[in-house]
Design a protein that fits this description.
By secondary structure, this protein is α+β, with helices and mostly antiparallel strands. It has 11 helices and 9 strands.
């Protein structure tokens, strides 16, 4: 029998019409399954309640579980980090965000921002002191770059660090900082007479406070805060020795954006699958709403965009593992996948009708969360212009 004979093909899977499952190795599937098992036990039963109340009461225990699973800084080598592949990390981000974007933000900020900054640019003392604790989830980190008046243009930051003898003294304010309210350490970027420098700042340092930002309607299962620096005195050893200028923080953002390329597809998959099942079970006019052409058209478009986004994420992951991933390609992935994931969630909401706005289903939660994901780690406008500069050679945002 010919290998192209339809009779010899596996039965189609309505949850995976593109056959994406066949693109993963058995080891990659095992990594994904271990993350899903942990989430199903420790997060899925409670996530809608955490979102509704705007906090995760057992965040420390959850961080330790993520640490024992090896997903905190999982793509970093040494110092207690798991040293897994970029694709493994991406699959973990997809599964975590399929539960909630706020949980993926916790993992991304910890591993791709705070831990990556220390791993890539820190001193050996920084690495030995912080990375094993952070990989285990025993210490939580945050990343202080964005300011109230400095978002897409981080070079305009006003937080300053000045030398005072052998010490550094930091003054300023950071805004919209994930993990800040319960962080043990902050990587803070500041203007100095030597250009922009990064500092490793324990959050119990006198003069530093991290007030929580309340009244969010998005990423409610994630603590967001400020970092207020009021003449925070640090020893000379606090500075990240290996980098000056925007290269430091931008390299970290690129790591985090890569995780978002995958994570957004998790929110999309969750919403798509809920809508597909609902369309089969919900009956109107004497038949399931999935039997109507307009519902099928919505599901087909959603499935198509999810499949394309997943393929793009996997392609970028394979390039990253080969050491060939460019920042512009990460911009392409972040721009496309978050935008399409948000559209998938919005369309899924229409299929669920009034039920779509209830936290009984995850769709409105994913939809609200992705409004933040669309903006952070680079807005739609900035990633569009990054691609525009690549295509034309002109930097339109300068």
């Amino acid at each position: 029998m010919s290998h192209t004979d339809p009779v010899s093909l596996p039965a189609p899977d309505p949850a995976d019409p593109g056959g994406l499952e066949e693109l993963l190795s058995e080891d990659e599937k095992a990594v994904r399954a271990s993350v899903r098992q942990m989430l199903d036990k420790s997060a899925e039963p409670y996530i809608s309640e955490w979102f509704e109340q705007g906090s995760i009461p057992n965040i420390r225990e959850l961080a330790l579980e993520f640490g024992s699973l090896g997903v905190l800084g999982m793509h970093l080598e040494g110092y207690g980090c798991a040293g897994m592949s970029a694709v493994d990390y991406g699959l973990a981000c997809l599964e975590i965000e399929a539960t909630d974007s706020g949980l993926r933000s916790l993992v991304s900020v910890q591993g791709s921002l705070a831990m990556f900054a220390i791993h890539r640019w820190g001193s050996e003392e920084h690495k030995q002191e912080w990375l094993p604790q952070m990989a285990a989830g025993a210490a939580i980190g945050c990343f202080g770059l964005t300011e109230p008046d400095s978002g897409s243009d981080p070079g305009s930051m006003t937080t300053r660090a000045r030398r005072d003898g052998s010490d550094w003294v930091l003054t300023g304010r950071k805004m919209w900082i994930s993990n800040a309210p319960y962080a043990d350490v902050a990587v803070v970027w500041a203007q100095t007479d030597e250009g922009i420098r990064g500092f490793v700042v324990p959050t119990d340092t006198p003069g530093l406070s991290t007030p929580e930002i309340k009244h969010k309607m998005s990423l409610r299962a994630s603590a967001t805060g400020e970092i207020v620096l009021d003449d925070v005195r640090l020893p000379a050893s606090a500075v990240l020795p290996e980098v000056r200028g925007l290269k430091g923080p931008l390299s970290c953002l690129n790591e985090a954006r890569y995780g978002i390329v995958w994570g957004a597809m998790g929110a999309a998959r969750s919403s798509l699958e809920v809508a597909r099942r609902y369309s089969i079970e919900r009956t109107q006019f004497g038949k399931p709403i999935g039997a109507f052409q307009m519902t099928q058209a919505k599901l087909a478009d959603m499935s198509l965009e999810y499949t394309k986004g997943y393929l793009l994420a996997l392609h970028l992951g394979r390039r990253k593992d080969a050491g060939r991933l460019r920042p512009e390609q990460v911009s392409m992935g972040k721009l496309n996948n978050v935008r399409e994931a948000l559209e998938i969630c919005r369309t899924a909401r229409t299929i669920l009708g009034g039920s779509g706005i209830s936290l009984e289903f995850p769709v409105i939660r994913h939809m609200n969360n992705l409004e933040s994901v669309l903006t952070y780690e680079g807005t739609v406008e900035m990633h569009t212009l990054v691609l525009g500069q690549l295509l034309t050679g002109h930097a339109a945002f300068r």
